[in-house]
Design a protein that fits this description.
The chain is an alpha/beta fold and 242 residues long. The protein has one domain (2-177): Rossmann fold. It has nine helices and eight strands. The strands form three sheets. The chain has a four-stranded mixed beta sheet, with no helix packed on it. A two-stranded antiparallel sheet has the order 1-6. Strands 4-5 form a two-stranded antiparallel sheet. The longest helix has 31 residues, at 211-241.
Amino acid sequence: MTHVSTNCVADNVVLPLCANPLHCPGLCLVPESGSAFFKRVIAYELERSGMEMTFDEKCKFGRLPWHWLASHRVVRIVRHPVERMLSAYLNQKHTKWASGYSFSHHANFTEVVTTITQLPDARVHLSFRRQTAMCKAATGDVATRVLRLEEYAHWRLRLAKKLHWPLLLSLVPRNRIGVDVMATFYTPDLLHRVETWAANDMKVFGYTSMFDCFDAEWKRRRSWETSTVTEIEDMLSDDTTT
């Protein structure tokens, strides 16, 4: 069993999702891995059940109506480190103060990635912290089930039944980023840097490199750029001949 120290809906803690810990698992969320989506689902399902969260200045998203002393099972939801890093950047999380370190609003993605991958997890905002560095203290040695956000369509039915949350069957997280967008921000060097820095996340959560996906997109763009340059040169050549 692991100790549950709070009923505040927050990241990096075990959330007691029902009145009796024997009837449902605890949930540990990390930012930029669907946490905002699942917090909204929690609030909706409580309201649907005729219960409400309470609010105070120390708990931004509200407190659940029950408090566990311990959890017997925990579910963790994670996201590929490469996509999660870019998601945090696009959501301006690098400008948030964290342990004395933050970036300007004008910092580009290369600067943010290069800096964060050289800092200890404790000095960066939770949105950029490696996922294996979070939930660990909260979950302890309790049996933990890891769910990858990318596979939401495959496990949401099972989780909806386990928690009695029908809303999961009709909604999907909206903050996924397409490969075409990611390939715009990432270079081969940046991709290698993030995947090396998050090697433990990749291994523990069963993720593989995104290089092949990105490489196909990079090749497509290079092909398009080359063909466009050739067309322009041909047009200029025709004008000169005329």
